[in-house]
Amino acid sequence: MNDRPPSRKRKVSRSKSPQVSLSRSSGSLDSGSEEESETDSRKVARLSHTNGVSSSELAETQEKCPICLKLLTDQISAITDTCSYHTFCLTCLEEWSKIKKLCPVDRKEYSSILVLDSKGHVSSELPIKSTVSNVLHADAELILCMACGLFIDSEFTLICDSCDAIFHSDCVTLSPENYADQWLCDDCWCYFNEF
């Protein structure tokens, strides 16, 4: 015969919730009402992973665009030519490329965008158009504004005729005394007008 003791019911108690008892042998729930029983059975199923993957878990496993953080489901996806690990929305990557030509995640430089089809295969290649503001040549000298300390990247600059210091035109106050025949920065103007 069977030497096992009869199956016992184990009570699970939670604060501020009705008591639910689980039967070890049958896995059935006993509760005060039918509605509470249904809610508790869903909780038990979720905890024991017998109900499959929930919709929130499914959303977490799907890939998201690292720029806009939207799920990559209906939009056209793209990768960079140097980094195939990170997938982006094509529109996000195009906008990002107008500012920087570095992968938004791992900062690898790239020169083109690879457009993906629905199966994840490369369907076309879009070269990145170079703009004057984002191209820095290795031999080019980086020049800082002497007033604000930021890079000089515009054509609206002033160069002191005495010390050759460079300023953004917005960073200096232009007064007629400073530029009769030549323009002098504040330091040079004060120096020459002290005597």
Automatic annotation (TrEMBL):
Keyword Transferase: no
Gene3D superfamilies referenced in this protein's UniProt entry, alphabetically: Zinc/RING finger domain, C3HC4 (zinc finger) (3.30.40.10)
Chain segments carrying region Disordered: 1-55
InterPro entries on file: PHRF1/Atg35 (IPR047157), Zinc_finger_PHD-type_CS (IPR019786), Znf_FYVE_PHD (IPR011011), Znf_PHD (IPR001965), Znf_PHD-finger (IPR019787), Znf_RING (IPR001841), Znf_RING/FYVE/PHD (IPR013083)
Occurrences of domain RING-type (ranges): 65-107
Gene Ontology molecular-function annotations: zinc ion binding
Bias (Low complexity) ranges: 15-31
Domain PHD-type, first and last residues per copy: 142-191
Keywords per UniProt: Metal-binding, Zinc, Zinc-finger
Protein's recorded name: PHD and RING finger domain-containing protein 1
Organism name: Ceutorhynchus assimilis
